[in-house]
Amino acid sequence: MFVDRIKVYVKAGNGGNGCISFRREKYVPKGGPNGGNGGDGGSVIFVADPGTSSLVDLKFNQHIDAEHGGHGLGSDMHGNRGEDLYVKVPPGTVVMDINNDNYQICDLDEPESEIVIAQGGKGGRGNRSFATSINRVPRQAEEGYPGEELVLLLELKTIADVGLVGYPNAGKSTFLNSVSNSGAKTASYPFTTLNPIVGTIDFPDFTRITIADIPGLVEGAHENIGLGHHFLRHIERTNNLVYVLDMNGTDGRDPLDDLVKLKEELELYEEGLSDRACMILANKMDNPASEENLERLRKETDLTIFPVIAELRDGVDEVLEFLHKRVMELKKSKVKHVPKLKNIYRKEGAVVVDLEADGDDFALSSDDDFDFDVEDLDYDDFYDDIDEDEV
Ligand SMILES: Nc1nc2c(ncn2[C@@H]2O[C@H](COP(=O)(O)OP(=O)(O)OP(=O)(O)O)[C@@H](O)[C@H]2O)c(=O)[nH]1
Ligand SMILES: [Mg+2]
């Protein structure tokens, strides 16, 4: 089973209570306070685990509770720290706070990234911690603080470089299987694929692209007809969309008509979504009617069209080459060059920051038009890297 939307209750551990206790020994009748502190409660931590592909390990309405901290004891014994609870979720999981208008707490879109979803409560201090020179016998201790508690909506939004969009039976899974080992089931009936399946393609230059087989769209998908939202959600995060058309026009369909309607569905779900279409995979070109449809299609659209017989792997390499190039170019343009700090010093009262980016040196001075206040800068991290004398 594949689950991509689930509600869970999350509760971090409470801190343990502090203890009130006094040293009592045979020859020490009036011993000092020795009540230990309570241990901190464990936190609930979500981890984006690449080995997890669906939220199926969690049950709807499941309670996810981290361990409480132990209470403090006499003889200065502190309570044990509650253990943190790590919960594996698939990369691409969006975490929302149900009690706060589905406010988005985080988006675990980076594999291996983790976030403390609910912070464990701090342990209370025992009476030993309250002793002062004035009050040597404090009869006072703190209770542990409660751990954070949340009701969450987890939603998985597939992350892939390319998304295959098409009507049921167009041949999306057949294509993906022909180029990757996705193992998507193919069959001659619609809705064979019910969940997004991501195939990975490795290239000889050690780059890789991922292609998601997004289940068949139907008219009205934007209104959630045919589980439309369930499918469309996974297109939101795919930067390159490929329209997969059945050029045969099986079941009385017309590929040109399909193209118009697919575009329409995307736009109705989210304005501008259809701008992400980068090509048309004109499939099932193994039929005489297909050639004629292809000619008509060429006149109707400016998108690059690749005629393909997915079933025979005919033409699929050209498609891969095109997608590979496109994805890599997009990725390259997104790389941010973070400037490297070389030096900070004062010059005539102004703070000057020397930076290096892309092999070029440049300097910023507080005399320049900064849109932040130099005094507000946190230099601590910078100072670690540079010579104290120069500052
Ligand atoms: N003639 C012909 N049939 C094809 C070709 N590619 C796929 N098919 C057939 O079309 C049918 C549907 O293929 P799928 O890959 O399951 O289609 P899909 O788009 O994944 O369909 P859903 O998962 O239902 O959305 C299967 O019977 C395939 O064998 C092709 O190039 N030529
Ligand atoms: Mg399929």
TrEMBL record:
GO terms for molecular function: GTP binding; GTPase activity; magnesium ion binding; ribosome binding. Its EC number is 3.6.5.-. Residues 1-159 form the Obg domain. Mg(2+) binds at S173, T193. GO terms for biological process: ribosome biogenesis. SUPFAM superfamilies: Obg GTP-binding protein N-terminal domain (SSF82051), P-loop containing nucleoside triphosphate hydrolases (SSF52540). Belongs to the TRAFAC class OBG-HflX-like GTPase superfamily. OBG GTPase family. This is GTPase Obg. It comes from Lentisphaera araneosa HTCC2155.
